[in-house]
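User: Hey, quick favor. My workstation is busy. Could you predict this chain's structure for me?
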Amino acid sequence: MRDRAPSVAGTFYESTYESLRKRLEWCFLHKIGPGSLPSKPTRPERSILGLVSPHAGYIYSGPIAAHGYFHISQEPAPKVVAIIGPNHTGMGAGVSIWEGGDWETPLGKIPVERQLARSIADQGVGELDSEAHLFEHSVEVQLPFLQYVLGEGFRIIPICMMLQDTETSAELGSAVAKSLDPASALLVASTDFSHYEPYSVAYLKDSKVAEAILGMEPAAVGATVEREEVSMCGPGPVMATMTAAKAMGARTAEKLCYATSGDTSGSKGEVVGYGSFAMKH
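Assistant: No problem, here it is.
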Protein backbone atom coordinates (compact mmCIF):
# COMPACT_ATOMS: atom_id res chain seq x y z
CA MET A 1 0.00 0.00 0.00
CA ARG A 2 1.79 3.10 -1.27
CA ASP A 3 2.15 6.16 0.94
CA ARG A 4 1.00 9.53 -0.40
CA ALA A 5 4.03 11.76 -0.98
CA PRO A 6 3.64 15.53 -0.65
CA SER A 7 2.55 17.17 -3.89
CA VAL A 8 2.94 20.87 -3.14
CA ALA A 9 5.89 20.96 -0.73
CA GLY A 10 8.26 23.57 -2.11
CA THR A 11 5.45 25.55 -3.75
CA PHE A 12 2.52 26.07 -1.36
CA TYR A 13 4.76 25.62 1.67
CA GLU A 14 8.41 24.95 2.45
CA SER A 15 9.96 21.58 1.63
CA THR A 16 12.25 20.95 4.61
CA TYR A 17 11.47 20.26 8.26
CA GLU A 18 13.14 23.36 9.70
CA SER A 19 12.00 25.81 7.04
CA LEU A 20 8.41 24.56 7.25
CA ARG A 21 8.32 24.90 11.03
CA LYS A 22 9.65 28.45 10.70
CA ARG A 23 6.94 29.23 8.13
CA LEU A 24 4.23 27.85 10.41
CA GLU A 25 5.55 29.98 13.26
CA TRP A 26 5.48 32.96 10.88
CA CYS A 27 1.81 32.21 10.18
CA PHE A 28 0.91 32.16 13.88
CA LEU A 29 2.89 35.31 14.70
CA HIS A 30 1.82 37.30 11.61
CA LYS A 31 -0.09 40.53 12.27
CA ILE A 32 -3.19 38.91 10.73
CA GLY A 33 -2.55 35.62 12.53
CA PRO A 34 -3.36 34.81 16.17
CA GLY A 35 -0.29 36.73 17.32
CA SER A 36 1.20 33.96 19.43
CA LEU A 37 2.29 30.36 19.05
CA PRO A 38 0.04 27.43 20.03
CA SER A 39 0.30 26.37 23.65
CA LYS A 40 -0.72 23.39 25.73
CA PRO A 41 -4.48 22.93 26.18
CA THR A 42 -6.09 25.43 28.54
CA ARG A 43 -9.60 23.99 28.37
CA PRO A 44 -10.54 20.71 30.07
CA GLU A 45 -12.94 19.56 27.32
CA ARG A 46 -13.19 19.83 23.57
CA SER A 47 -15.76 22.25 22.18
CA ILE A 48 -14.74 22.51 18.52
CA LEU A 49 -16.19 19.85 16.23
CA GLY A 50 -15.48 21.48 12.88
CA LEU A 51 -13.23 24.05 11.22
CA VAL A 52 -13.40 25.94 7.95
CA SER A 53 -9.83 26.60 6.84
CA PRO A 54 -8.19 28.02 3.68
CA HIS A 55 -5.77 26.11 1.47
CA ALA A 56 -3.72 28.59 -0.56
CA GLY A 57 0.04 29.08 -0.33
CA TYR A 58 1.02 29.80 3.24
CA ILE A 59 2.35 33.28 2.44
CA TYR A 60 -1.18 34.20 1.36
CA SER A 61 -3.60 32.21 3.55
CA GLY A 62 -1.42 30.76 6.30
CA PRO A 63 -2.04 33.51 8.87
CA ILE A 64 -5.80 33.08 8.48
CA ALA A 65 -5.61 29.28 8.72
CA ALA A 66 -3.49 29.63 11.86
CA HIS A 67 -6.47 31.00 13.79
CA GLY A 68 -8.40 27.74 13.60
CA TYR A 69 -5.42 25.63 14.54
CA PHE A 70 -4.51 27.96 17.40
CA HIS A 71 -7.98 27.38 18.87
CA ILE A 72 -7.60 23.62 18.40
CA SER A 73 -4.34 23.74 20.35
CA GLN A 74 -6.18 25.10 23.39
CA GLU A 75 -8.33 21.97 23.73
CA PRO A 76 -7.61 18.27 24.27
CA ALA A 77 -6.40 16.79 20.99
CA PRO A 78 -8.73 14.88 18.65
CA LYS A 79 -7.75 11.35 17.68
CA VAL A 80 -9.25 11.38 14.18
CA VAL A 81 -9.39 14.30 11.74
CA ALA A 82 -11.62 14.07 8.66
CA ILE A 83 -10.45 16.63 6.09
CA ILE A 84 -12.84 17.40 3.25
CA GLY A 85 -11.53 19.45 0.34
CA PRO A 86 -12.57 20.32 -3.20
CA ASN A 87 -11.18 18.59 -6.26
CA HIS A 88 -9.17 21.08 -8.36
CA THR A 89 -7.62 18.54 -10.73
CA GLY A 90 -10.68 16.81 -12.20
CA MET A 91 -9.11 13.43 -11.51
CA GLY A 92 -10.77 10.50 -9.76
CA ALA A 93 -14.25 9.85 -8.44
CA GLY A 94 -17.01 12.37 -7.73
CA VAL A 95 -16.41 11.93 -3.99
CA SER A 96 -13.05 10.31 -3.31
CA ILE A 97 -12.18 8.80 0.07
CA TRP A 98 -8.54 7.83 0.54
CA GLU A 99 -7.94 4.38 1.99
CA GLY A 100 -4.33 3.98 0.95
CA GLY A 101 -1.05 4.43 2.77
CA ASP A 102 0.10 7.11 5.16
CA TRP A 103 0.39 10.74 4.09
CA GLU A 104 3.81 12.36 4.21
CA THR A 105 4.84 15.98 4.72
CA PRO A 106 8.28 17.43 5.54
CA LEU A 107 7.22 17.12 9.21
CA GLY A 108 6.74 13.35 8.99
CA LYS A 109 4.07 10.74 8.28
CA ILE A 110 0.42 10.78 9.32
CA PRO A 111 -1.47 7.45 9.47
CA VAL A 112 -4.83 7.08 7.76
CA GLU A 113 -7.90 5.83 9.65
CA ARG A 114 -8.78 3.19 7.07
CA GLN A 115 -11.58 1.46 8.95
CA LEU A 116 -13.59 4.66 9.29
CA ALA A 117 -12.79 5.62 5.70
CA ARG A 118 -14.34 2.33 4.59
CA SER A 119 -17.32 2.93 6.88
CA ILE A 120 -18.03 6.25 5.15
CA ALA A 121 -17.62 4.76 1.69
CA ASP A 122 -19.85 1.79 2.56
CA GLN A 123 -22.77 4.18 2.97
CA GLY A 124 -22.72 4.78 -0.78
CA VAL A 125 -21.91 8.47 -0.99
CA GLY A 126 -18.26 8.17 -2.01
CA GLU A 127 -15.68 5.78 -3.42
CA LEU A 128 -12.41 4.50 -2.03
CA ASP A 129 -10.12 6.17 -4.53
CA SER A 130 -6.55 7.44 -4.61
CA GLU A 131 -6.37 9.09 -8.04
CA ALA A 132 -8.21 12.27 -6.99
CA HIS A 133 -5.73 12.84 -4.15
CA LEU A 134 -2.41 12.34 -5.92
CA PHE A 135 -1.88 15.95 -7.01
CA GLU A 136 -4.65 17.70 -5.05
CA HIS A 137 -3.52 20.35 -2.55
CA SER A 138 -6.71 21.14 -0.64
CA VAL A 139 -6.29 18.36 1.94
CA GLU A 140 -2.50 18.37 1.96
CA VAL A 141 -1.98 22.00 3.04
CA GLN A 142 -3.97 21.38 6.24
CA LEU A 143 -1.62 18.63 7.37
CA PRO A 144 1.48 20.58 8.49
CA PHE A 145 -0.75 22.77 10.66
CA LEU A 146 -2.26 19.67 12.25
CA GLN A 147 1.18 18.14 12.80
CA TYR A 148 2.54 21.34 14.33
CA VAL A 149 -0.39 21.66 16.73
CA LEU A 150 -1.21 18.02 17.53
CA GLY A 151 2.16 16.32 17.14
CA GLU A 152 1.71 12.59 16.70
CA GLY A 153 -1.11 10.36 17.84
CA PHE A 154 -3.86 11.35 15.41
CA ARG A 155 -5.13 9.76 12.22
CA ILE A 156 -6.70 11.33 9.16
CA ILE A 157 -9.52 10.61 6.73
CA PRO A 158 -8.80 12.52 3.50
CA ILE A 159 -11.90 13.19 1.38
CA CYS A 160 -11.96 15.04 -1.95
CA MET A 161 -15.19 16.35 -3.54
CA MET A 162 -15.60 16.92 -7.26
CA LEU A 163 -19.38 16.80 -6.85
CA GLN A 164 -20.34 19.70 -4.60
CA ASP A 165 -24.10 20.02 -4.99
CA THR A 166 -26.24 20.44 -1.90
CA GLU A 167 -27.63 16.90 -1.97
CA THR A 168 -24.24 15.20 -2.29
CA SER A 169 -22.83 17.43 0.44
CA ALA A 170 -25.70 16.56 2.79
CA GLU A 171 -25.31 12.84 2.11
CA LEU A 172 -21.56 12.94 2.69
CA GLY A 173 -21.95 14.96 5.88
CA SER A 174 -24.50 12.48 7.19
CA ALA A 175 -22.25 9.52 6.38
CA VAL A 176 -19.27 11.14 8.09
CA ALA A 177 -21.30 11.89 11.22
CA LYS A 178 -22.56 8.31 11.44
CA SER A 179 -19.00 6.97 11.25
CA LEU A 180 -17.17 9.28 13.66
CA ASP A 181 -17.24 9.64 17.43
CA PRO A 182 -17.88 13.30 18.40
CA ALA A 183 -15.79 12.85 21.52
CA SER A 184 -12.60 12.15 19.58
CA ALA A 185 -13.08 13.51 16.04
CA LEU A 186 -12.46 16.83 14.32
CA LEU A 187 -13.82 17.89 10.93
CA VAL A 188 -11.95 20.29 8.64
CA ALA A 189 -13.55 21.88 5.57
CA SER A 190 -10.81 23.10 3.25
CA THR A 191 -11.90 26.03 1.07
CA ASP A 192 -10.95 29.42 -0.25
CA PHE A 193 -13.63 32.05 -0.84
CA SER A 194 -13.82 34.63 -3.66
CA HIS A 195 -11.16 34.27 -6.35
CA TYR A 196 -9.56 37.20 -8.21
CA GLU A 197 -12.13 39.80 -7.29
CA PRO A 198 -11.43 43.45 -6.42
CA TYR A 199 -10.68 43.81 -2.71
CA SER A 200 -13.99 45.41 -1.73
CA VAL A 201 -16.05 43.03 -3.87
CA ALA A 202 -14.44 39.99 -2.24
CA TYR A 203 -15.18 41.33 1.23
CA LEU A 204 -18.81 42.01 0.34
CA LYS A 205 -19.52 38.68 -1.36
CA ASP A 206 -17.68 36.62 1.20
CA SER A 207 -19.45 38.35 4.09
CA LYS A 208 -22.72 36.95 2.77
CA VAL A 209 -21.31 33.42 2.70
CA ALA A 210 -19.99 33.99 6.22
CA GLU A 211 -23.50 34.88 7.36
CA ALA A 212 -24.76 31.54 6.02
CA ILE A 213 -21.99 29.68 7.83
CA LEU A 214 -22.68 31.50 11.08
CA GLY A 215 -26.36 30.66 10.69
CA MET A 216 -25.45 26.95 10.72
CA GLU A 217 -27.64 26.23 7.70
CA PRO A 218 -25.60 24.20 5.18
CA ALA A 219 -28.00 24.62 2.24
CA ALA A 220 -27.86 28.39 2.70
CA VAL A 221 -24.15 28.29 1.90
CA GLY A 222 -24.77 26.73 -1.50
CA ALA A 223 -27.71 29.01 -2.21
CA THR A 224 -25.68 32.11 -1.31
CA VAL A 225 -22.71 31.06 -3.43
CA GLU A 226 -25.03 30.55 -6.41
CA ARG A 227 -27.12 33.68 -5.89
CA GLU A 228 -24.19 36.03 -5.30
CA GLU A 229 -21.97 34.31 -7.89
CA VAL A 230 -19.20 33.74 -5.36
CA SER A 231 -16.20 31.99 -6.91
CA MET A 232 -15.70 29.86 -3.81
CA CYS A 233 -13.89 26.62 -4.58
CA GLY A 234 -15.19 24.56 -1.69
CA PRO A 235 -18.86 25.13 -0.90
CA GLY A 236 -19.39 21.36 -0.92
CA PRO A 237 -16.79 20.62 1.76
CA VAL A 238 -18.20 23.45 3.89
CA MET A 239 -21.79 22.17 3.55
CA ALA A 240 -20.72 18.58 4.24
CA THR A 241 -18.72 19.61 7.29
CA MET A 242 -21.54 21.75 8.63
CA THR A 243 -24.00 18.88 8.15
CA ALA A 244 -21.71 16.45 9.95
CA ALA A 245 -20.86 18.90 12.74
CA LYS A 246 -24.53 19.61 13.43
CA ALA A 247 -25.34 15.89 13.52
CA MET A 248 -22.44 15.42 15.96
CA GLY A 249 -23.73 18.11 18.30
CA ALA A 250 -22.47 21.47 17.02
CA ARG A 251 -24.90 24.28 17.76
CA THR A 252 -22.99 27.46 16.98
CA ALA A 253 -20.39 28.74 14.52
CA GLU A 254 -17.82 31.45 15.21
CA LYS A 255 -15.82 33.52 12.73
CA LEU A 256 -12.20 33.43 13.87
CA CYS A 257 -10.69 35.46 11.03
CA TYR A 258 -11.42 36.66 7.52
CA ALA A 259 -8.87 38.36 5.29
CA THR A 260 -7.70 38.31 1.69
CA SER A 261 -4.48 37.89 -0.21
CA GLY A 262 -4.55 41.68 -0.44
CA ASP A 263 -4.19 41.85 3.32
CA THR A 264 -1.30 39.38 3.47
CA SER A 265 0.54 40.06 0.21
CA GLY A 266 -0.26 43.75 -0.30
CA SER A 267 -1.79 43.64 -3.79
CA LYS A 268 -5.48 44.56 -3.67
CA GLY A 269 -6.37 44.75 -7.36
CA GLU A 270 -7.42 41.11 -7.59
CA VAL A 271 -7.60 39.12 -4.37
CA VAL A 272 -8.58 35.72 -3.04
CA GLY A 273 -10.65 35.57 0.16
CA TYR A 274 -9.83 33.32 3.09
CA GLY A 275 -11.92 32.51 6.14
CA SER A 276 -11.36 30.60 9.37
CA PHE A 277 -14.49 29.45 11.24
CA ALA A 278 -15.12 27.08 14.14
CA MET A 279 -18.26 25.01 14.74
CA LYS A 280 -18.81 24.26 18.41
CA HIS A 281 -20.98 22.40 20.89
